[in-house]
Amino acid sequence: NAGVTQTPKFRVLKTGQSMTLLCAQDMNHEYMYWYRQDPGMGLRLIHYSVGEGTTAKGEVPDGYNVSRLKKQNFLLGLESAAPSQTSVYFCASSYGGNIQYFGAGTRLSVL
Amino acid sequence: GEDVEQSLFLSVREGDSSVINCTYTDSSSTYLYWYKQEPGAGLQLLTYIFSNMDMKQDQRLTVLLNKKDKHLSLRIADTQTGDSAIYFCAERPANSGYSTLTFGKGTMLLVSP
Fold first, then answer.
1. pLDDT tens-digit profile of B19-64?
2. Which of A35, B24, B42, B47 has the smallest C-beta neighbourhood within 10 Å, fewest atoms?
């Protein structure tokens, strides 16, 4: 039972490049979330999903897109990366919404 | 809107007790959480408390909730160097769509030998 797995763990992009971050959970959770963590800012919610095929915007959705084609996977896409998107990205999942379980994070640098 | 405030830094000696404080603004919050983040790692749920409780104890951890003052604290007894980490307080407001959480900025706990 791996829990919540994020890939890749590290990535460096040039401004304007695109990439997709993958989050996979094996706990059959309905809810999944993407957060970003910046120094002195805590965690801020980017997008979330309450089930396969559904997504919703969080606090800071601009510049990101998401997809939940399969229940176990939640993808976060950056179409045209900007330096302001340099951050640590965390995925989380939850069964009934009360307890969120987090992945180990993806550290992204945009040059 | 909701806001969760924490002090940024706490330093204690090994063996002492640590108390990390948090204030929140949404009185409708149903659950309040403490997460721990070790360097380079994700967030690990330490404990949580329902809003209808005043206290919860779990081994070395004690959570106190003062709903009147919207104040949450985490006490770690016999603090060890392995407890050095960033601790995040989070609330789940009753009106949070689909159980989204609001996190504080985190308190860095440094435990010295």
1. 999 998 877 777 899 999 998 888 999 999 988 889 999 999 999 9
2. B47
A90–B100: do the CB atoms touch at under 8 Å? Answer: no
Q: Is the dihedral angle over the CA atoms B53, A102, A17, A56 positive or is it negative?
A: negative
* 8 Å CB contact of B41 and A105: yes
B43 min Cα distance to partner chain A (Å): 6
Hey, are the CB atoms on B105 and A96 less than 8 Å from each other?
no
B32 Cα to chain A: minimum distance (Å): 10
Q: Is the peptide bond before A8 cis (omega within 30 degrees of 0)?
A: yes
A88 neighbors A8 (Cβ within 8 angstroms)? no
Rounded to an integer, the average pLDDT of B85-97 is 83
- Type of residue found at A99: I
Question: Number of Cβ pairs closer than 8 Å across A and B?
Answer: 52
Q: What is the pLDDT of residues A44-102, one digit of tens each?
A: 999 999 999 999 999 899 999 999 999 999 999 999 999 999 999 999 999 876 789 99
Distance between CA atoms of B36 and B86, rounded to whole angstroms?
6
- Return the number of other C-beta atoms located less than 10 Å from residue A84's C-beta: 11
